[in-house]
Amino acid sequence: MRILCLHGFGMNPDIMKRQMSTIRKICDPSWEFHFLAGNIECSPAPGAEAMPGPYLCYTSTFDPASMRAAEALVHAEFEKEGPFDGVFGFSTGASILAAYLLGQRVAQPDKPLPVQFAIFCSAVPIIASDPTYYQAIYGSLSQEEERIIRSGQYDQYLKLPEPIQSAVTVIGNVTDMLKPVLRNSRLFFLDRSPLEIPCPLNPDLYTARLNIPTLHTRATREPPALKESSLAVESFCVPTLRRTFEHSVAHGLPKKLEEIQNMVAAMEEVIGSDRRARL
């Protein structure tokens, strides 16, 4: 059983291995976790400074070109080191994996996905890489609408039509919450030319779905913007095939032994449901 793992922003494979050390000890010894390093150096995530660098990410700007590059990095790893049975991602790593798999579903709708299950931990919004989707959301902004977005003022966003209002509000809320990680304010992401602004996928507008068993983990008291992000990722997964697990560590992996044991049990259930489906 081979599982491709992607770390969060400002981390690296060795840090993720440490975070997952108890998970890996408890889980089935036949599970092999393969870690893909980000290819962009960035500032360390809070708490990561105590561990050796380099500190890495898959994208630091979240514009469409950088998202396509991140997905291409994942695809190259499948080509070079695959096949993989499943994927495991944390935070931005989870969302990039979700974006990649959704892209595969759109590009090859009649073919099975390249993995049989996915585990998404504390996923942030799935950022679009498809220029057509960007054009549909941001491509016909008026000068006034562009000015409002660049202002970074939430009260002004209420003047924007949907789905633009929802898109920029999600980006503003999440980047505000993750400013200690990203080390940039919301204006860094919103004060741009329209087609360079990060564009979260909206499940009401983007119809592709992941038809494999999925596990979605998050904190019971996750900050609202991050909980909404995790729920949005769930929306792209078939309801009858997805499972949710909550724990006590905000935007992190569980640390209490009982919670780790319960998470591994949830992982086993998701992986087992895939195996049963293939019998």
From TrEMBL:
It holds the Pfam family FSH1. One of its GO terms (cellular component) is cytoplasm. Keywords: Hydrolase. SUPFAM superfamilies: alpha/beta-Hydrolases. Residues 1-262 form the Serine hydrolase domain. GO terms for biological process: antibiotic biosynthetic process; monocarboxylic acid biosynthetic process; secondary metabolic process. GO terms for molecular function: hydrolase activity. PANTHER family: ESTERASE ALNB, ESTERASE OVCA2. This is Serine hydrolase domain-containing protein.
